[in-house]
Amino acid sequence: MKAVVFHGVGDIRLDEVDDPVIQEPTDAIVRITTSAICGTDLHFIRGTVSGMKPGTVLGHEGVGVVEEVGNDVRNFKAGDRVVIPSTIACGYCSYCRAGYYAQCDTVNPHGKQGGTSFYGGPEPTGPFDGLQAEKARIPFAAVNLFKLPDDVSDDQAILLSDIFPTAYFGAELADIKKGHSVAVFGCGPVGQLTIVSAKLMGAGRVFAVDRRPDRLEEARKQGAEIINFEEDDPVEKIRELTGGIGVDCAIDAVGVDAECPHGQNADDFQAERAQVAPEQNPDGELWQPGKAPSQSLRWATEALAKAGTLSIIGVYPPNDTTFPIGMAMNRNLTIRMGNCNHRSYIPKLIQIVRSGSVDLSSFIKKQEDMPSVLDAYKQFDTRQPGWLKATVIPR
Prior knowledge:
Elements: E1 2-8, E2 11-16, E3 28-37, H1 39-46, E4 62-69, E5 81-84, H2 94-97, E6 135-138, E7 146-147, H3 154-161, H4 163-173, E8 181-185, H5 189-200, E9 205-210, H6 213-221, E10 225-228, H7 234-241, E11 247-252, H8 266-276, H9 295-303, E12 304-312, H10 325-330, E13 334-337, H11 342-355, E14 366-369, H12 373-381, E15 390-393
Parallel strand pairs: 8-9, 8-11, 9-10, 11-12, 12-13, 14-15
Antiparallel strand pairs: 1-2, 3-4, 3-6, 3-15, 4-5, 5-7
Helix pairs in contact: 3-11, 4-5, 4-11, 7-9
C-alpha cells in the first residue's frame, strides 16, 4: 500500500509499504478514506520535535471503513464507517477510566512514564504507524474507534479526529465562562476551531492573533476581533481594547513553531524585545538562544488580566524547559495545558456537528489525492494562502 513515510528531518516520501495486519485480538484494520496534514506533523519534519524513527508512517487524523477486527473487538464489524481518535488508549487503566485517555498507562511500550501515545509520532510515543496511508492498524480498537452517522461527511469527520476535540479541550482548559474575554494566539485550524469552541461556551469577546491575512479573515468571519501582529503589538492592542485590563482567558494554539514579526525567530525577537523594552523583562537579562519561550506563549501570558487563565494546547517538545514563570506567579495566573483526551470529547462533538450549529466542512480548504501529498506538505509548511486545512484522499 502507499503511505507517507518519515525518513529524516526534511525528508518524507510516498513509499510502498506492507499492508498492516492484525497483531493482537484487540486490533482492527481500517481502510482510510480521508486523512489530513496537521501542524504537529510539521514539528517532526522540521526537527523542532525530535525522536522520530525513520520508517514511521506519518499522520494522526483519519476516517475510514473497518475491514477486519480481532476476536476481542465486540462493538465493530467489517463495513462500519469510523473516525479514529488521534491519541491511543486502552480503555481500562485508571487514567482511561477517569477520562484521561491521553495519559493511558497501558498503551505506550515505554511504560507508565512514557506519556501520550498517538499515531505517526516520535519513538518515545510508541511509535505507532500513522494514518496517512491506505490502511492502518488500530490497537485497542473497541475504544479507539467511533462509529459515524450517515449524516456526518468525511470532511466533517476528519476534523473530529483531532482538530475540533483539541480546540474544544483548549477552550475548556481556559475555563471560559459566559461573558469572558478570550485571546486565541494562532489562527490555524486549531485556532479557528478554538474560536468556535469559545463561542459555544459563551465567550463575550474573542480576540484572534496571527499575521496571515487569509487566516485572520477566516477568524473575522466567525466574529473574532482580529489583530495582525505585523501591524500592532498584540499585547498592547489587547490591553487597549480591554480598558487596560487584559483578557480573562488566553489560549496558545500554536506551540513551538510560532512565527514572529518580520520573519525573525523567537530567540532573536525576544532578545530584541528585552533590549527595547527592559521593563517587560523583570530579570534584567537577555533571552539566551534556545532558552526563549515561544513568542505566542509569552504574548498569551502578557495579554492576560491578573488572575486570568492560560491554556496551552500548542505542541512543545519534552526537552523544552522555558516559561515566564516569574511573570505568571506574580500576576496570580492559572496555567492549564496538555494533550487532548480525544475520546472524551468526540461523542459530544459529533452531536454538535449533527445539530448544524457548526459547519466543519467550511474549514477544509484543500483536498489532495495521495500522489500529490508531498507537494501539499510543502504548501502547508510554508502557510501558503488558502492552505488552512488540507485533507489527503488515499487514491
